[in-house]
Amino acid sequence: ETLAAFVSETVTHLLGVAGCSLWAITKDGNIKCVGVAGSIDKQCLGQDLPVSDAPGSGFVPYVAATGQMLRLVGDKVLQHPAYDGTPLPGAEPPGPESLLVQVPLIAKDTVLGVLQVNDAPAHVLEDPFTDEETSFLEIIARLVAADLDRVGYKRRVAQEERSRLEDELHEAMNVLATGVHWEAATTYQAFCANNRDEVVYGIKRIE
User: Fold this and answer.
1) Side-chain-facing half-sphere of 181: CA atoms under 13 Å
2) How far apart are alpha carbons 152 and 157 in whole angstroms?
3) How large is the greatest C-alpha to C-alpha distance in the chain, in angstroms?
4) Strand order of the sheet with strand 48-49?
5) Cβ contacts of residue 203 below 8 Å, gap of 6+?
6) Taking the CB of residue 33, how many other CB atoms lie within 10 A of it?
7) Are residues 139 and 14 in contact, defined by beta-carbon separation less than 8 angstroms?
8) Do 85 and 112 form a contact (C-beta atoms < 8 A)?
9) Would you write out the chain's pLDDT as a tens digit for each of its 207 residues?
10) Among the listed residues 126, 56, 70, the one whose alpha carbon sits nearest the alpha carbon of residue 101
11) Residue-level pLDDT at 100
C-alpha cells in the first residue's frame, strides 16, 4: 500500500494530471484499488471488482482481463464497450476532451494490476497528454509490475517455508508421540514383569 500511494502521488505530480490510481490483482482473482492520488476520491481505496472484458464491466476490469493499454480521449471514453456509465474520477462528467489512460502492470506474461490516469477537460485543453508521457507511464508500469512480482515471490517463498516448517513440526510431534507411547508401554511391561504378583492381585481386586 505504501508503494501504491507513492506511485499514485508521484505520477499525479510529475505529469500534472487530475488523478491517478493503482489497482492490484487479489488472491481470489479480482482487482482491488490500492492507491489513489489527486482528485480521485479516497473512497475508491479498497474497491474490489471482478476482472472481466464483458461490455459495461468497467475500464479497470477490462484492462486487467485483456492486458491491453487504453488511451481514450473525449467521446471515445463514452463509446468504448467497457464504459459502465459511471463518471470518471477526476474528469466528471466525461467531456469532449476528457482523458483516460490505463496501463496494465505485466510481469512474466501475467497481469498483476492496472495503473490508471484521469484528467479533466480543462487541463487536457491547456496541456494535452503526449506520447512521451504515455511512454513514461508504460515505464512506470513495468517497474511497478516488477516490484509486485518480487513481493508476490517473497510471499510465496514465505508460505512454502511456513508450510514446510509446519509439516516438519507435525512429523516431529508424531515421532515424539510415538516415542512417548513406546517408552510408556516398555515401562509398563517392565513393571508388570517385575511385579507380576502385585499386578495379578490388583486385577483380581478389580474383578
Assistant:
1) 6
2) 9
3) 106
4) 48-49, 31-38, 19-25, 110-119, 99-107, 70-73
5) none
6) 24
7) no
8) no
9) 677 888 888 888 888 888 899 999 998 999 999 999 987 878 888 899 999 999 989 999 999 999 999 988 777 888 889 988 765 544 445 555 577 889 999 998 999 999 998 876 555 555 557 788 888 889 999 988 988 888 766 666 566 666 776 666 666 666 555 655 555 556 656 655 665 555 444 444 444
10) 70
11) 83
Stretch (H or E) spanning 43: none
Q: Measured between alpha carbons, how far is 172 from 177 in angstroms, rounded to an integer?
A: 8
Cβ partners under 8 Å of residue 107, min gap 6: 145, 146, 148, 149
Degrees, nearest 5: CA angle 187-188-189: 90
Q: Which three cell numbers stand for residue 121?
A: 477537460
For residue 85, give every residue at least 6 positions away whose Cβ sits within 8 Å of its Cβ, in sequence order, or none. Answer: 56
Peptide linkage before 93 cis (omega within 30 of 0)? yes
Cα 31 from Cα 21, distance rounded (Å): 12
Taking alpha carbons only, the member of 87, 103, 105 closest to residue 95 is 87
Distance of CA 179 to the CA centre of its chain: 44
All residues at 6 or more sequence positions from 31 whose CB lies less than 8 Å from its CB, including other chains: 23, 24, 25, 48, 49, 50, 51, 60, 61, 64, 113, 114
